[in-house]
């Protein structure tokens, strides 16, 4: 359903959950960045597009809500280790779309869609691993929410560039994203290998 080109292997969730606090802290930064990204799109691409601005503001509010939920959970799972600096996943995706100079609006939308799709895939695996627990239910809810965000960004791409161009570019980006995430080191991060 998410169209990803690389399926996260069995065992990723149990490994990532060896340090639930560190995983939640990494996740906290992801939610913060997702909110900031939505607001950046509204600012940079929202002129004359009130419906885009409204959608991005609503999205940012939802991501901020996720941020608050993760922050609350961190009280129960204090991280034992410091987070790894930077986010090689997001950096790698951004580099790929900026390599010819300025990234197109379509590419920005599709990178957001892929980050949402990969996060959704990971939350589903975490939910399965933790089924029946508070944390498991939390990941289950987030899965549904991030799937919605994935779809929203693809739809915005189609509105902007048409279906053929969007799906063709999405395919190229999916290939790259799959290779990128498979190449990252393992660890308690949402976007580790
Ligand atoms: Fe989120
Ligand atoms: Fe999201």
Features:
Ferritin; 7 helices; binds fe (ii) ion; mainly alpha; 193 residues
Summarize the structure.
The chain is mainly alpha-helical and 193 residues long. It contains 7 helices and no strands. It has one domain (12-77, 88-183): Ferritin (Up-down Bundle), CATH 1.20.1260.10.
Written account of the structure:
The longest helix has 28 residues, at 134-161. The chain has seven helices and no strands. The protein has one domain: Ferritin (Up-down Bundle). The chain is 74% helix and 0% strand. It has helices at 12-16, 20-45, 50-76, 88-98, 105-129, 134-161, 163-183. The chain has 193 residues and is an all-alpha fold. The structure holds fe (ii) ion (2 copies). The site of one fe (ii) ion has 5 residues, from helix 2 and helix 3.
SSE map:
Blueprint: H1 12-16, H2 20-45, H3 50-76, H4 88-98, H5 105-129, H6 134-161, H7 163-183
This protein binds fe (ii) ion (FE2) (2 copies).
If classified by CATH, what would the architecture be?
Answer: Up-down Bundle
CATH 4th-level superfamily: Ferritin, core subunit, four-helix bundle
Q: Give the low-pLDDT segments.
A: none
The portion of residues forming beta strands comes to under 5%
